[in-house]
Amino acid sequence: MTEAEIITKVRAIMNEVGNDENLTLLSEDTISLDQYIKSVIADAVNLIVDNSPYRCVNRKSATANVSLVNGAGIIVVPEDYISLIALQLDGWKKIVAKTFELDSEEYKVNANPYTKAGINKPVVFNSYDASGRTLQCYPYASAISLFAYEGRYTPGGSVALNLNDPVAIAICYMCASLVYGIFENDTTSKVMSATAINLLPKK
Question: How far, in Å, CA of 81 to CA of 67, rounded?
Answer without folding.
Answer: 19
